[in-house]
Amino acid sequence: MKPKTLQETFDEAIADSNSANLNGKGHESRMLHGVKISKLLYSGEIKIYNPKGKDYDEELTPQELTFFQQGWRKGVYGLILEVYRNRLDLIQKRIAEEMNSKKSQLSLKGFRDKRLSLTTKYFQITQKLNQLK
Predict the structure, then answer these.
(1) What is the DSSP letter of 114?
(2) Residues 6+ away with beta carbon under 8 Å from 39
(3) Percent of the chain whose pLDDT exceeds 90
(4) 67: exposed, middle or buried (C-beta count within 10 Å: 0-12, 13-18, 19+)?
(5) Cβ(95)–Cβ(113) under 8 Å?
(6) Half-sphere exposure of 86 toward its Cβ, with a 13 Å CA cutoff?
(7) How many C-beta neighbours within 10 Å does residue 35 have?
(8) pTM, full prediction
(9) Which helix (H) or strand (E) holds 117?
(10) Which residues have C-beta within 8 Å of that of residue 57, sequence separation ≥ 6?
(11) Which residue did the predictor score with more confidence, 54 or 49?
């Protein structure tokens, strides 16, 4: 299967009824699960932004852009799963550190609750991705 271009991915995002419309002055934009795709009207340039929970848009790296070669939805789900995996790894390290040092039961419970929440979200996105195939 031929990889999709950014324009094809953008067209899929525009057509996706679940993508939020974030159009503004000088750009057309859509967002799904925190992933934003935007096209500047004056230049036609298309960019995809990361859902890392920051207060500003961070453009995807070339490696992250490869998720979108299969289209909008598959790209969003693939990227979100990658973000969740990274967060789960970080939480797992924090749990290990807590177990080896302070052993605060409150902190451990907080980390375990976060891990459970992320694992649940990960499973839900995996289910959605599997339905697309």
Answers:
(1) H
(2) 10, 27, 28, 29, 45, 46
(3) 74
(4) buried
(5) no
(6) 8
(7) 24
(8) 0.87
(9) helix 105-132
(10) 36, 49, 50
(11) 49
